[in-house]
Amino acid sequence: MDAIIKDAEDRMKKSAASLEEELAGLRTGRASAAMFDKLRVPYYGTPTPINQVASISVPESRLVVIQPWDKAVLPEIEKAIQSSEMSLNPSNDGKVIRINIPPLTEERRKEIVKLAKNTAEQGRVAVRNIRRDANDELKKQEKSGDISEDDLKRGEDQVQKLTDQYIEQINEVLSAKEHEILEI
C-alpha cells in the first residue's frame, strides 16, 4: 500500500513540476530566458534547444540578448524566433541577437491567461488520473486479500489528501502566473 501511495505522490509531483515548466515558457510582458526553452534550432542536422547552442541573457526587463557560441547558427536562431508563436522580431548584428520584448496588449494578455488556465486544467486532470490509478491499485490489493478494507479506506484517504495538496499547488502556480501576465 505504501508503495502505491509513494508512486502516486512521485507522479503527482512530476505533473506539478511539468506544469510549472510549461507555464514558465508562456510569454509575459517581461523578458525571460525561459521564453526560449521550447525553441529548437537545427544544429549539425539535429534539432537542439537554443540554450544549448547559445547563452541567453536578460540585461533589461524588456530585452533579451542571445549570443551563440558558434556564429554559423546565428541565422538559424533568428529564423526559429521569427517563426515561433511569440510574435517577436529579433535583430541580428552578426555577433548577437537582440530581442526587444514589446508590452502585451490587453487582448493578448487575456489570450495568454486563457492558455495558462487550459494548461493548468490539464495538470489537474493528470493529477486526478493518477488518483484514479492509485485507488484502482488499492482496490485490486484489497480484492486479492493483500490489504484489509480498513487499509483500503486509509489508503484512499491518503491518496485524496495528496490529490488535494497537488491541485492546490497547481492553483497557486496558475494564480501567480496569471498575476504576472496581467501585471502592467
H and E string: HEEEEHEEHH
How much beta, percentage-wise? 15-25%
Number of strands: 6
In percent, how helical is the residue content?
55-70%
Average the pLDDT over all residues and give the rounded result: 88
Q: Give the biggest sheet.
A: 4 strands, antiparallel
Helical/strand content category: alpha+beta
> Spatial order of the strands in the main sheet?
3-4-6-5
**Overall shape:** elongated
Q: In DSSP terms, counting alpha (H) and pi (I) runs of 4 or more, how many helices?
A: 4
- Gyration radius, rounded: 22 Å
Unreliable stretches: none
Give the terminus-to-terminus CA distance: 49 Å
Describe this entry's structure for a reader:
With 184 residues, this protein is of the alpha+beta class. Helices cover 57% and strands 15% of the residues. A hairpin with a 2-residue loop joins strand 1 and strand 2 (46-49). The model has no long low-confidence stretch (mean pLDDT 88).
Brief characterization of the structure:
With about 180 residues, this protein is an alpha+beta fold. The protein contains 4 helices and 6 strands; from the N terminus they run αββββαββαα.
Question: What topology does this entry show?
Answer:
Layout: H1 2-24, E1 40-43, E2 46-49, E3 54-60, E4 63-68, H2 74-83, E5 90-92, E6 97-100, H3 106-143, H4 149-182
Antiparallel strand pairs: 1-2, 3-4, 4-6, 5-6
Helix pairs in contact: 1-3, 1-4, 3-4
Using brief descriptors, characterize the structure shown.
alpha+beta; 6 strands; 4-stranded antiparallel beta sheet; elongated; 184 residues
